[in-house]
Amino acid sequence: MAARPTVDDTTEAPTRVGYTALLRTPGAWTFLLPAFVARLPYAMLSLGIVLLVLDTNGSYGIAGAVAATAATAQALVGPQTGRLADRLGQAAVLVPVVLVHAVSVGALIALALGHAPVWTLFPAAAPAGATVPQIGAMVRARWVTKLADRPVYLTTAFAFESVTDEFTFVVGPVLAGAIATTVAPAAALVAEAVLTVLGGLLFAAQRATAPTRHLPEPGAQRVSALASPGVRLLVGAFLGVGSVFGAMQVSVTAFAEHVGQGDLSGVVYGVFAGGSMTAGVLYGLIAWRRSPQQRMLAGYGLLVLGCSTLWAMPDLTALTIAGLFCGLAIAPTLITGYTLVEALVADGAKTEAFTWLTGAIGLGLAVGSTVAGQLIDLGGPSLGFLVPVAGAGAGLVALVTLRRLLTGPGAASRTVARGGEAAAPVAEPAAG
Description:
The chain is mostly helical. The chain is 69% helix and 3% strand.
């Protein structure tokens, strides 16, 4: 079988694709609506864990550590779930995953409310995080399948998905907080589990739009998406973006409380997230002439530039403006990263590849929030804002230094080599 064409760095033909045309794609709404329900609790889990453990244990440190355990498990196990979805079909993986997730969350709630020993919370949080369904990656894989004959629509589709991600990350914590304060802290996690199961099962039921399974011929070795150096580079870059998210959440809160305006911390972070959403919407409407490789470097460079000013802001108003400019670079960077990774891997590894990027953001968020919190304890809120520029700066250095990996063949070939011979993967209808 011929190798998949590699991504080059040539200028793309400008094509304008609107969201209306994208959403008219036959069958799109059948998976987008249940996917939204299933993705909403994605951002509810960490805050729900923090609120529950804080209510039952009273320690911010323990609450943060338990939430970080779930986030780390999600980042490390999620890509393996994506890999299984490529091999077995999305429904075959989603159904057991969401059911195990509900049981794990229920166990965590029971342990916390029962005032079990603190150490027991960690082995309960790990499977709860590990079984968070990778709906965002699965939706992107479905778009790749649906738009196979219209590849110019993919940038708009990935822009739409990034804006959806941003929206759920804004709405999810607000919903979790509202349920926790009006009902009970445990109720926020109950709602998270119910939405995950309901949305996940409804999404899994939409089998007509699911990607085909790609099974290697007998004896052929299955190659992970991480076999591509370009994918590994993008995972590192997305870790840097995740550190920006995590550090911003903690540092903005600490800064607002430091200046006596703690009640406005949500507004500041909302402006940051809103800037990213706005940029994502506009990004998907522009007829780009530059290649995605060039756009990735430009967007990431603007992100570093925006983050570099945060630590020096004298008041909350200035911080809000700086956060807005920082946020404007987030969504374009993420959209371009997903566009690049789609072209760097074979069809049978796309869900896994998307999941590695999503997991990298989650892991970077956990590390960024932890390091920023420690720096804030040592020297105040301004030190916390050094984490975004350090994390994003390291990502930019890697991208600039190794940018050739984004245009090289990497794992872009559709063939699987074994003993010098190419074995073509076999496509089968999605199971279940």
